[in-house]
Amino acid sequence: MSTVDLTEERRRRRRAGDPRLSAKGREVLARITTGDLQDEFQEALDSDLASDPTLGPGPDIDVT
Amino acid sequence: MIVVDEYLAVRVLSGDWPVALPDTEDLALPASRHWRLLRRLHGPSGGQLSQILGTLSARDRDTIRFPYPEVFSVLDTRPLLDEAAQIAARYGGLGWLIAETLAAGLTYGKALYFGNERNVGRILHEIADDLGIAVIVAR
Questions:
Q1: How far does the CA of residue A26 sit from the closest CA of chain B (Å)?
Q2: What is the pTM of this model?
Q3: Domains annotated on chain B, with CATH
Q4: What band does A59 get if pLDDT is binned at 50, 70 and 90?
Q5: Pairing of the two strands B111-114 and B134-137
């Protein structure tokens, strides 16, 4: 009877990502994080800091 | 526990594991950073980003809204709040995102992993250096 390395199996599953995500969803997320929409994604994240006084620093602090 | 930013959380859930990101510990995203991802999903700001996010199915969106802890978990803010408030007071003028991220870095391994150098920010980088927290950009 073979034994299964649970740690390795867990690591393999984690590296495979979320099984609920469709192939199309993977494509969309790849465009945002490493593809052509990276800049727009970063600008949107930065805009939260500028527009939300609790989340971001005061307007006198340049975080970039 | 390895503390990651929005880029790495999204890359990992889509099965795109960066070479420089260790896979020996669980991953955690600060709540303030999860908030920023949720704002992208629920509050379209116009432009191509909103259009493309609008094409995600409800099931796809759920992977960001309710991440599987096996993939990454969202950090509970409450145990970090006091440390975050101390950091904000010490360095002055910090908001929740930077203070919470630094508190998470102090608490979990004295390291913070980012997926894009632009998402680090100068202030966070300088304070992390001062606090002895390593800032690692894992491409």
A1: 5
A2: 0.92
A3: 2-137 (3.40.50)
A4: very low
A5: parallel
Helix or strand holding residue B138 (H, E): none
pLDDT tier at A60 (50, 70, 90 boundaries)? very low
Model confidence at A61, pLDDT cuts 50, 70, 90, reads: low
Burial of B77 (C-beta count, 10 Å sphere; 0-12/13-18/19+): middle
Distance CA B22, CA B2 (A): 8
Q: Which amino acid is at A35?
A: G
A:4-43 residues touching chain B, CB 8 A cutoff = 10-11, 13-18, 20-22, 24-26, 28-34, 37-38, 40-42
Q: Does residue B45 surpass a pLDDT of 90? A: no
Which one of B71, B94, B119, B127 would you mutate to disrupt binding with A, by most A Cβ within 10 Å of its Cβ?
Answer: B71
Q: How many residues does chain A have?
A: 64
Identify the three-state secondary structure at position B27: strand
DSSP B65-111: HS--TTT-EEPPSGGGHHHHHHHHHHHSS--HHHHHHHHHHHHTTTE
